[in-house]
Design goal:
Belongs to the Gfa family. The N and C termini lie far apart (61 Å). The longest helix has 7 residues. It is built from one helix and eleven strands; from the N terminus they run βββαββββββββ. The strands form three sheets. It has a five-stranded mixed beta sheet. Strand 6 and strand 7 form a beta hairpin. It is mainly beta. It has a domain of 83 residues: Beta Complex (Metal Binding Protein, Guanine Nucleotide Exchange Factor, Chain A), CATH 2.170.150. 5% of the residues lie in helices and 36% in strands.
Amino acid sequence: MTEAKTKTYKGSCLCSAVKFELIGEFQSFFLCHCSRCQKDTGSAHAANLFAPSAKLVWTQGENDVKTYLHPNSRHAKSFCRHCGSALPMVADSIKSVVVPAGSLDEAPSILPTAKIFVGSCASWSKDLSDIPSFETFPSA
Protein backbone atom coordinates (compact mmCIF):
# COMPACT_ATOMS: atom_id res chain seq x y z
CA MET A 1 0.00 0.00 0.00
CA THR A 2 1.42 3.37 -0.99
CA GLU A 3 1.11 6.35 1.28
CA ALA A 4 -0.70 9.35 -0.18
CA LYS A 5 1.58 12.36 -0.54
CA THR A 6 0.39 15.52 1.16
CA LYS A 7 0.26 18.52 -1.18
CA THR A 8 2.38 21.55 -0.30
CA TYR A 9 1.53 24.96 -1.75
CA LYS A 10 4.00 27.85 -1.68
CA GLY A 11 3.04 31.49 -1.55
CA SER A 12 4.42 34.96 -0.97
CA CYS A 13 3.62 38.63 -0.81
CA LEU A 14 4.24 41.12 -3.62
CA CYS A 15 7.59 42.34 -2.26
CA SER A 16 8.75 38.80 -1.31
CA ALA A 17 9.46 39.81 2.30
CA VAL A 18 7.01 37.11 3.45
CA LYS A 19 6.90 33.53 2.20
CA PHE A 20 4.83 30.61 3.39
CA GLU A 21 3.86 27.01 2.75
CA LEU A 22 0.46 25.44 3.20
CA ILE A 23 0.68 21.72 3.81
CA GLY A 24 -2.63 20.04 3.01
CA GLU A 25 -5.58 20.47 0.69
CA PHE A 26 -8.26 23.08 0.21
CA GLN A 27 -11.85 22.19 1.05
CA SER A 28 -13.57 25.24 -0.42
CA PHE A 29 -12.87 28.36 -2.46
CA PHE A 30 -15.26 31.26 -1.90
CA LEU A 31 -15.61 34.52 -3.82
CA CYS A 32 -16.97 36.77 -1.08
CA HIS A 33 -18.94 39.84 -2.16
CA CYS A 34 -19.64 41.24 1.34
CA SER A 35 -19.01 44.95 1.89
CA ARG A 36 -16.11 44.23 4.27
CA CYS A 37 -14.28 42.13 1.67
CA GLN A 38 -14.89 44.85 -0.92
CA LYS A 39 -13.29 47.39 1.42
CA ASP A 40 -10.27 45.30 2.40
CA THR A 41 -9.49 44.17 -1.16
CA GLY A 42 -10.46 47.42 -2.90
CA SER A 43 -12.23 45.23 -5.44
CA ALA A 44 -15.54 43.55 -6.16
CA HIS A 45 -14.83 40.51 -3.98
CA ALA A 46 -12.27 38.57 -2.01
CA ALA A 47 -11.08 35.20 -3.34
CA ASN A 48 -10.27 32.99 -0.34
CA LEU A 49 -9.44 29.32 -0.06
CA PHE A 50 -10.30 27.38 3.10
CA ALA A 51 -8.19 24.49 4.39
CA PRO A 52 -9.51 23.15 7.71
CA SER A 53 -7.02 20.31 8.08
CA ALA A 54 -3.95 22.04 6.62
CA LYS A 55 -0.90 23.46 8.34
CA LEU A 56 0.40 26.98 7.67
CA VAL A 57 4.19 27.38 7.90
CA TRP A 58 5.91 30.76 7.56
CA THR A 59 9.22 30.16 5.77
CA GLN A 60 10.30 33.82 5.71
CA GLY A 61 9.20 37.11 7.26
CA GLU A 62 6.69 35.90 9.86
CA ASN A 63 7.37 39.04 11.92
CA ASP A 64 6.33 41.15 8.92
CA VAL A 65 2.81 39.69 8.96
CA LYS A 66 0.19 41.91 10.58
CA THR A 67 -3.45 41.04 11.19
CA TYR A 68 -6.42 43.38 11.36
CA LEU A 69 -9.52 42.07 13.16
CA HIS A 70 -12.61 44.14 12.45
CA PRO A 71 -14.34 45.06 15.75
CA ASN A 72 -17.34 42.98 16.81
CA SER A 73 -16.99 40.56 13.88
CA ARG A 74 -15.14 37.49 12.63
CA HIS A 75 -13.78 39.51 9.70
CA ALA A 76 -9.98 39.58 9.73
CA LYS A 77 -7.21 40.17 7.24
CA SER A 78 -3.52 39.33 7.46
CA PHE A 79 -1.12 41.31 5.31
CA CYS A 80 2.54 42.16 4.74
CA ARG A 81 3.56 45.27 6.68
CA HIS A 82 5.84 46.33 3.80
CA CYS A 83 3.71 45.97 0.67
CA GLY A 84 0.19 45.41 2.07
CA SER A 85 -0.37 42.15 0.19
CA ALA A 86 -3.05 39.87 1.62
CA LEU A 87 -1.62 36.80 3.36
CA PRO A 88 -2.99 33.61 4.92
CA MET A 89 -4.19 33.38 8.47
CA VAL A 90 -5.39 30.75 10.88
CA ALA A 91 -9.02 31.56 11.62
CA ASP A 92 -9.66 29.93 14.98
CA SER A 93 -13.34 30.97 14.90
CA ILE A 94 -13.98 28.66 11.93
CA LYS A 95 -11.12 26.21 12.59
CA SER A 96 -9.52 26.75 9.20
CA VAL A 97 -6.52 28.23 7.46
CA VAL A 98 -7.80 30.96 5.12
CA VAL A 99 -5.58 31.64 2.12
CA PRO A 100 -6.10 34.56 -0.28
CA ALA A 101 -5.95 32.88 -3.69
CA GLY A 102 -3.70 35.57 -5.16
CA SER A 103 -1.04 34.97 -2.51
CA LEU A 104 -0.27 31.51 -3.89
CA ASP A 105 2.70 31.09 -6.23
CA GLU A 106 0.80 28.40 -8.20
CA ALA A 107 -2.80 27.68 -9.09
CA PRO A 108 -4.86 26.04 -6.33
CA SER A 109 -6.14 22.49 -6.77
CA ILE A 110 -9.78 23.61 -6.91
CA LEU A 111 -11.85 26.17 -8.77
CA PRO A 112 -14.16 28.56 -6.90
CA THR A 113 -16.92 26.58 -5.22
CA ALA A 114 -19.34 29.43 -4.50
CA LYS A 115 -20.01 33.15 -4.64
CA ILE A 116 -21.11 34.28 -1.19
CA PHE A 117 -22.83 37.40 0.15
CA VAL A 118 -24.01 38.24 -3.37
CA GLY A 119 -26.73 40.42 -1.87
CA SER A 120 -23.93 42.91 -1.13
CA CYS A 121 -22.41 42.65 -4.62
CA ALA A 122 -21.12 45.94 -6.00
CA SER A 123 -23.59 47.17 -8.61
CA TRP A 124 -20.78 47.81 -11.12
CA SER A 125 -19.62 44.19 -10.98
CA LYS A 126 -22.87 42.30 -11.49
CA ASP A 127 -22.55 41.66 -15.24
CA LEU A 128 -19.13 42.08 -16.78
CA SER A 129 -19.62 39.74 -19.75
CA ASP A 130 -19.78 42.59 -22.31
CA ILE A 131 -16.70 44.44 -21.01
CA PRO A 132 -13.74 44.32 -23.44
CA SER A 133 -10.80 42.12 -22.37
CA PHE A 134 -7.11 42.67 -23.11
CA GLU A 135 -4.06 40.41 -22.66
CA THR A 136 -2.07 43.41 -21.31
CA PHE A 137 -2.68 47.08 -20.53
CA PRO A 138 -4.80 48.52 -23.40
CA SER A 139 -3.17 51.05 -25.72
CA ALA A 140 -4.60 54.55 -25.77
